[in-house]
Amino acid sequence: MSNRKNYGMIIDTRVCVGCSACVYACKSENAVPEGFCRDWVVQETSGSFPALSMENRSERCQHCDNAPCVTYCPTGASHYDEYGTVQINRSRCTGCKACMAACPYDARYVHPEGFIDKCTLCRHRLEKGLETACVSICPTRSLNLVDFNNMTPDSRALTSGKEVYRQKEHAGTEPRLFWISARNKPGA
Amino acid sequence: MKYGQNMSRRDFIRISSLFLAGAAAMPVIPAGILSGMGSRPEGKTDGKIVYSFCEHCFWRCGIAVHVSDGKVTKITGSEHHPLSNGRLCPRGAGGTGLLYDPDRLAHPLVRETRGGRQQYRKASWDEAVTIVAEKLYKIHGEYGPGAIAMLHHGFGVSFFKKMLSEIGVNKIAKPSYDLCCGPARQASVLTYGYPSDTPEGFDIMNSKYMIFFGTHFGENMHNTAVQEISEAIRRGAKIAVFDPRYSTLAGKAEHWLPIKPATDIAMMQALMHVLISENIYDKPFVDQYTVGFGELWDSVREMTPEKAAEITDVPAEAIRTVAREYAFHAPAAFVHSGRRTNWYGDALQRIRAIHILNALVGNFRMPGGVVAFQKFPLPQPPAAHEHPAYEKEAYSKYPFFPQDEPSNTIASHEIVQQAIAGEIKALLIYGVNLPETMTLGRQAALDALQKLDFSVAVDVLPSEVTGYVDVVLPECTYLERYDDLDNGRAFRTPFVALRQPAVKPMFETKPGSEIARMITDKWGLHGVFAPTVEAGLDKKLKLAGSSLEEIKKKGVLVMPATDLYRKPGEPLNLKTPSGKVELASAQLKAGGFDAVPKYMPHPEAPRDYYRMLTGRKPMLTFGRTANNRFLGDLASARENEVWVNTAVASKHSLTNGEYVHLKNQAGVVSEFPVKVKVTERIRQDAVYMVHGFGHSSKQLTWAYKRGASHNQLISRTDIDPAMGAVGFQNNFVTFVKEA
Amino acid sequence: MIESAREIISTKINPGVVPHLHIWEWHIPLYLFLGGIAGGLLLITSAMIVMKRHFGFGPKDEGEGCPCLAVRIGSVLSPALLGLGMLFLFLDLAHKLYVWAFYTTIQPTSPMSAGSWILIAFFPLAVLQAMVVNRKYVEGLGIPLVNSLIAWGDAHLVKVALLNAHIGVGLGIYTGILLSFFSARPLWSSSILGMLFLMSGISSAAALMLLLAPKDERHIYSRIDANAIWVELVIVGLFVLGGITGPANSHGAMMHLIAGDHLMAGMPYMYWFWGVFVLCGLLVPLLVEVLENAGVHLHLPPIAPVLVLTGGLVLRFLIVFAGQTWHTFM
């Protein structure tokens, strides 16, 4: 057990259908302005007819342990917090957009009010012991909130025996979103 | 009275934006709720939670409506409601987009002719309701109750149903029967002796092998079913999908079999052939609990996988593999009957074939197989007035149309045809956007609307249909009203759910319960409805040993789980004529139809035309959400695309992302262009486009001109001669390049 | 991989990152261009001062420590252009009221934080140097504090100029480093970008001084310019080769720049890069200046410096835009 938390997600792409409930839940929960989103859904199909394969996944800020946005932020507005997540302090953000250029996941956008915005992993809900809005609405339970410093047996079981990957791991960002690949055979 | 007089034809009226929410009451729409800007500090969604149920699709999941300062800030899945189980689909989460839609109808409107021009004017509720009551009364007096009909879609219709039954009007149709669930319902009646329901009676969660024909869970976000499929996948279930298109569900499948469209029954017959010829069906079950096996075998004996392969374009070996795997995993295996089941006018037989495939492996009331969920036994208070003569009258001419559903006594296309023929003089349209609803296509709908003596629409939005009626009554949304109790859903834990208002009705809108009461009052029929809707609900709940006060807390009363599975040797006591599962239906035979399903070829596409297939996007429910800008905001929700196979695209020199018009076999060209999606995900003999786009009403400021209307391109319909459902997939389109 | 073998449906809508990053528009390339010229001007003027004061080289002394008129003007232009560039930088900020946040912290890992301090550090000595070389005008104002500063500066002018030369180089490199630290943007993620922008800044600055210099001083700047262009050409070659021979990310991004059909102001990147930047911005002026320096007088209007300046501007726009229109690090 560790007192320091390190929140992230384990996302099961085997069951995700790309419905986008997570996106709308986030937009309502976080008052995300019209025309913007903090999370989004990707449906990726590979192959050629009829040998096709598909992966659906809900994407968002990866709350990297080695986050280029934090590295690059000139004012310290982008920072790590005690939950192991990456946050933006709006009252220090100049809107210089360096973090947006630095993010290999294109997770950020310029809020119409000028500051840079992105997924907070619903920090205000974490503080109350709640799961994020996207996790709590997900009809397929593809999204799982996990404290990687205090893994429960349930969260360990999520990935055990399965092919799990992280996105753009070779960027050295140490992302905190783990993806259960859709390539796993049924019942893996 | 000016309305309706000297009106040989009803001009389409573009409702003045002055009568819509945006202009009427900008201050009433909380600034920035939709945009999310400046309305409240981030994450401050505390406040009260109102438990209700959703109206964005027919599934009716439980919702938790979060209200703060009298405004709905977000909607999540109710943790108490068995169908949502704390989770919700995107459409349910998007209810605020309807509630705060600036295009909402704000006032009652009455058609009038002024200076030779037809237009709507704002009317008081009393005036509008008086007109409706008088007109219906007059037509009733002159032509009898059979000259009045109602088309409805939506849970709030119950009050209008009751209102009409008070004057003996029972010509009531829901287009969803014709287009969607009808064939599955009646096929279940004919095979098992009881109608199929919502959620469909499949023990998905515990299944090990699931076969789907064309149904695309995941794109149709039926919350509970999607939750259970996900759970089944986690538990290792395998999926086989027969679909000309690589749907999201096909993306989850072990086997995707891109079947040639319109050949499904041949495939089902071949699967039966393999099950029987390889003797891997459940012989004891078939012997003990079914009738008509011999007739069935005779009918599929010739349909070898090799023969089916020629018809369906699926390799014979793949057919054998699926059949064997299915039998291997049975009884924890099923073939799903799907939703929106009517494609080619033979859906009753196709779904029958599905039920037969299920019966052959003996999965009836077995874990992971076909099950019969139970409904909450809610005692109904005695009716205030009895109209036995009318209630018994059957209206539909189709022999296997349901006889036991008061809210669906006739096919909606029969109403359209009777209106065109002048038999129906007055029509009440509740929540049905007729020109964009698939019954017989757009032109027939417009012809019917022109011909009526009187029509009234009860709606929330200025959808196309509201431009063609005499009176428009603006109902408030499902988030602003009580409705009847929902015990129409059968599930593992039977339940009854409450719809209750989260906020007060906005503008001059009223709940349906009040509108119906006002009309019956005008007729002098007082006491049809309880003094208040709350009192009526309370009375019903008291009969069930609860109260309105109690159910308001969680929005639902839930019973313990029922036992879904049969014991060895237990009699089935089915309500079919034989008391058994009817592989061959003597009823159908007596009606002059095939007792067992037989494959019949359907029309093929003309050269350079492609069969037009349809479906939906997960965040949209056709008309209900078309103008919802909160839901429409996402990149993939903004318009529909026409999916074109890569080879077809290259043949027609189409590039990905370009806009084309579509032209159908009857020469109808889509009003608006549609974006081409060049894809490997569809066969070369079909194209696919999502229904519910391409709206022509300018008052739907979001939906207007987005994508192309699928409905507009339906010129040919195939009506099931047995049960009256409408198939519309025998329509073919080609591409017309933008000049 | 076959193009059609991957189909993606995404719900993402954020403008600025969809369909590709376009968060930085004209402000940033202009700022980088002006910053580069400012750095180059400071380097050249400082070098001229050191050469004159310390080694006695250079054109005629005007008697106030200033080697020549061009240096006098260049010294003033350097901080002025940087100030203008910083104005564009400020205009680009989306949250302008919070600009102070740059100056309440030092973020050691952030080039932009370092840059914001470099920009501030640039001004005192550059302005001092400009005042010293222009003392005959400034002293006329009769501000005692200024005059004593000028007196101190004049006494230490060589040291000040040496320091300024380094600051100029630093600023020039910084304008490139600002981009090259973004490993998420494959085109920018090249450490030679700093040298490229430095040399481009120097050649542009030399070209600008060539335009400003009196006729008899021009040959100096022409020579500086020709040499800077020559070095810049080599660096451009290395930059391009490094990209082409790099892994898929860099290769794709470089091809997007040098062979891409993405449009900038209606013309594909490829034409901008080879036609406008390399040919018109580097090769033609190099040829003209080499010929001039070799004594072949073409009697042309000063097209060479104008072309160099245009090329330098186009380079900043190309790099900033092409870096954003290519996909993120994969």
Structure notes:
In chain A, 19% of the residues lie in helices and 24% in strands. Chain A has a domain at 7-64 and 120-180: 2-Layer Sandwich (Alpha-Beta Plaits). Chain A is α+β, with helices and mostly antiparallel strands and 188 residues long. Chain A has helices at 21-29, 68-72, 98-102, 123-126, 133-137, 153-159; strands spanning 7-12, 40-48, 51-59, 78-80, 86-88, 109-110, 116-117, 143-147, 164-165, 177-180. The longest helix of chain A has 9 residues, at 21-29. Chain B is of the alpha/beta class. Helices cover 28% and strands 16% of the residues of chain B. Chain B has 23 helices and 26 strands. The longest helix of chain B has 19 residues, at 125-143. Chain C is mainly alpha-helical. Chain C has a single domain (20-325), classed as Up-down Bundle (Formate dehydrogenase/DMSO reductase fold). Helix content of chain C is 67%, strand content 3%. Chain C has a two-stranded antiparallel sheet with strand order 2-3. In chain C, strand 2 and strand 3 (267-268) form a beta hairpin. The chains are: A alpha+beta (188), B alpha/beta (739), C mainly alpha (330). Strand 2 of chain A pairs antiparallel with strand 1 of chain C.
